[in-house]
What does this fold into?
Amino acid sequence: MRVLILNGPNLNRLGKREPDAYGTFTLAELEHELEQFAFDHGIELTCSQSNHEGEIIDWLQQAERQDLDGVVLNAGAYTHTSIAIRDAIASINVPVIEVHISNVYKREDFRHHSFIAPVAEGQITGFGKDVYFLGLHALLLRNQRG
It folds into this structure.
């Protein structure tokens, strides 16, 4: 099984940015834990992060060309603003699990709307860094069911 973990804007600031909302772990620490989880579960994992909308779209489109089995996507603020990322997800035949470290529904009103949710396989929000592991687990279950 081959999966892409894709993080959007400002997630490179994990550990420094709003630790009350996002925790004190860094992106490098998170990726290390995800790589260990993936290894233990036979998943070939790639982790990417970008602050640039177009690069995120390119990676989503490449996921289909590379015949990946899924994407776990934390689009950050683009979740609430990017129709272009929404359209990229809708255009590919790769399941995308939307994740958010904080519970976006307990935060500012503008975070309550996701352009991604209607085209994602599912959404996991509010469980800290565990959302990524839950997303991988969801893809594993999906893959086992065929």
